[in-house]
Model the fold of this input.
Amino acid sequence: MDKAIAPLDTAISLEKVEKAAKNLKGVIYKTPLLQNLSLSQHYNANIYLKREDLQVVRSYKIRGAYNKMCGLSEQEKAREIVCSSAGNHAQGVAYACQLLGIKGYIFMPSNTPEQKVSKVRLFGKEMVEVVLTGNTYDDTFKAAKEFCDSRGSTFIPPFDDMAIVEGQATVGLEILKDASFSIDFCFMPIGGGGLASGLASVFKRLSPHTKLIGVQPMGAPSMYRSIQENRRLMLDQIDSFVDGAAVKCPGELTFEICRELLDDVVLIPEGQICEDILKMYNEEGIVLEPAGTLSISALKGYAGQIEGKNVVCIVSGSNNDITRMEDIKERAMQHQGLKHYFMVTFNQKPGALRTFVNKVLDPDHDIIHFQYIKKNNKEKGPVFVGIEVKHPHDVETIKLKMLEEGFAYEYLNGKQDFLNLLV
Done:
């Protein structure tokens, strides 16, 4: 399809987005569009952050949720509502339930950070009941739909709905009204695609020259893969670490819009996301959740193209749990090449450990994990070893020295599921 013509056929209407903005007046914060001096200097560009992390529920999701729910009929409101969410949509729906006086059942994955669950209850007060079930968003979605159908309630989808997309599109409307400059690039996170399809629809009508870049985590590339193959794909398995963007399959509506209107969709390693979460916190004092960091993390891969340009990054949310910080630091250090894990076969004889420490490791290397797994026989036994190094290239020397000293090993970095069981 010719993308010069397709956008106006595919995109949602500006009239509907303007109506959504009126519906949201007095309900949401008009979040700031702020230039970030540190990122601007680093990339030699004008980098602006659309701070949806400062939204009333600390993410943009209230926009779509409230816009959808305020349009329900009295009969639909009386039948109560149901939603499924990894957290941010749940908070938006819960807050809308409280404001509109609608009873809601909020289904969330069982591994949702407690901070997000508590916030849902805070925003919904007595109007919502939280149901924790399933290990991924898609499992939770299935359970919520079955519950909803059994009761004849109204389901509030997280992204694949026109009113939801129109609400999320108000982010783009605000950006273009606030910007006194021409925007060359806009980076936006993608989970199911509600925000991206709304933003893309607005930008293609009001700022058609802007390059629109969608960003997904490497472990949950549903929109990326679907666009690559030109059909909606249901992924068999995803990494749910970037919980706000961990979706196995994009929406039908959102896929069609994103496929036609986005200029590119890129994937970011979870370790890079973690590195940028820590950097934004330590250097900027900004607390971001993994999905909220995606657009900032994408800048690295576009460094050459954005130099001297005006760039907007959508910072989509800040609902992070402090208990996740150790995991975030761990993944960041692995990504930086500073932490390495091995399963090492030690000979069961005196001096084996001394040989490993003195002849394999350098004085500035630290052993951070050392655990015998089990003894297979009298002569040999596997040991799980974690090593922290000062320089990424040190690991190659360690590997070489292990072989020279007769230590067989298996390198475990990159086998995240296995490491999660051990670390």
